[in-house]
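Exercise 7. Given the components listed, write out the predicted structure of the assembled complex. Treat all entries as one system.
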Amino acid sequence: MGHAMKLLVVEDENKTADYVRQGLMEAGFVVDLARNGLDGHHLAMGETYDLVVLDVMLPDVDGWRIVRALRDAGKQVPVLFLTARGGVDDRVKGLELGADDYLVKPFAFSELLARVRTLLRRGSAPSQPDRIQVADLVLDLARRRATRAGQRINLTSKEFALLELLARRQGEVLPRSLIASQVWDMNFDSDSNVIDVAIRRLRAKIDDAFNPKLIHTVRGMGYTLDAPDDAPSP
Amino acid sequence: MRPMMPLRHKPRQSRPASLALRVTALVGIATTLVFLVFNWVILRSLEHHFAQQDAHELEAVTTALAQPLHQLASDIASDELKQHLANAVAGHHGMTYGVYDGSGNSIYATPGPDLSKLASSKKLVNRITADDLIVWQEDQRSYRGVVVQLPADDSAASGYRIVAAMDIGFHLDFLAEFKRMLWWATGLVMCLALGVAWLAVQWGHLPIRKVNEEIRAIRSSKLDVRLDPRDVPIELAELVFAFNDMLARIEEGFTRLSHFSADIAHELRTPVTNLVTQTHVALGQPRSNEEYREILYSNLEEFDRMGRMIGDMLFLAQTENDPRNLRLSTIDLSELVRSLFDYFEALAEDSGITLGVKGAIGSIAADREMLTRALNNLLSNAIRHTPRGKSITVLLSQDEQWTTISVVNPGERIPEPDLPKLFNRFYRVDPARQRNTAGAGLGLAIVKSIAEAHGGSVAVTSSELVTRFDLVLPHLRQ
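Answer.
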């Protein structure tokens, strides 16, 4: 991503709006915030954004109308909508109207960030690399093999899928729920510590015998795979 | 005061007639009908009786007239004949008669109504019965008469016709009077019957009113009240039983709901209190950034747990409020179990537990996300309670009606009284068990609500060797 991505957040609840904006700005995005539907509609139609985060329950112009107006005007900007109701109807309606993804309130910010990044990536270069390198960890996606410092590492297919997810989204904090959903297709919060155990086992294979450590736990949020800048590999 | 549910009004449909009205009307109609039939029978037999009497009298008169006609010579003078005929009939009052020859000419006629028309009537008889009588009116008087044809022989009276008639006004007056009296009686009896029926119905409804009052006295605070079926007539006992059953179900739901609210409050109060205390302490004195971060992390974990619990409760509420909101799809159960094993593989290996599946069955229709969640909860529960080195088995079986998914794990025996409570919300067999390891205690409640949303059920059995959870689902059509 060469330039800073520009996002529009339409959210009428002040506290949520503030922390979403702050979080997104600290994640490196340029953020415009509209605190009501009318401003949101105006900004969305007038400006050019890389992505719109849209609360559907707005007091004046509801989110559905903004999505419809965008699509009617031929704007293909990705839309992530926030819904307070977990109802199936809302999800189906939003996706039918042309929204790209949804999050049910209340949501964890890390979840929102992960989804925003997914949508932005989907919009940009669709190039599928057949090789990902993070420090001295190399993933051969075509042959589904991993090597670290030149040594072949034996991974089960799910372990490879997990490592691939982390590597593709290098530097991003991935919440457990996102990992469960992407790797195992489990789309609900599980109260078991399956993800923690899976990460621990993956760590044992790719990090225990090597330096620097690549998989990091971000307490309370999730996991990330990153090569530390300050500690170059020896 | 609880809000009352509004009665549902169907448009343009009036209320069915009241029971009192129905019973009273029925009694009234029945009484009237019975009396009408009774009246008819009485009047008919009276009339018949009178006709019979008249027939006898007319017969006597005609016989008395025929006698002299046969015995007299054919050349008798007409005056003498008339005299004979006039004397032949004595002791019969109100009687009119006449004799006519074969061609209808009057030989003799007493004063009174004109009988000549009768003489030419075709209705001739030899023997008189009540049915042969002819009734007619003349000068506002009613008569009953008969025509007798004498046999054709060699006597002077050969082919003669005797006509006799009598005034039946007296009989008719009597009948009319009798009829009027019967109508009055009928009306009176009907009114009486209606009144008695009305009273009987009101009296009969007394137990209903009593039951009604008892029901009205029931408040949400005393749902344990039951109506005594021995206090009501046998016809109402069934209703009382049904009402008691309904009350029991309401009580159960109400108790569960109030426990649930209390549990929610309790479950949320503990972490909130912790958070508040922790924050107070943290703000009590200046700390290093590292310490603040540590506190925020710790808070985050607590918030996360609360958030998950609220999410689970919301899921339960939604599933139970709208249990038919399923998105059914065809699911290959063996494949679903395999993918869940995939998911739990690392955790199970870590705990030294092996996972196995037995039984192969066809696809079923179910809500994939819900079913996955239910099986996830059952498996994660089983893993939590299985000792190291043992194995968990998922058994799949199917008959014409049901598909059963059983999760069997070796482990400590669960005491019998605890078994049914396992599926209650927030229930934990060991109260001292840490909240952290056992989750919010909603996992099995969610399994139950998912099973019930599909029209199925859950069950659990526990022996010294194994604990077994059954998830039973009906065959649904997509």
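Discussion: The first strand of chain A starts at residue 6 and ends at 10. Helices of chain A lie at 14-26, 37-46, 63-72, 88-96, 109-123, 157-168, 176-184, 194-206.
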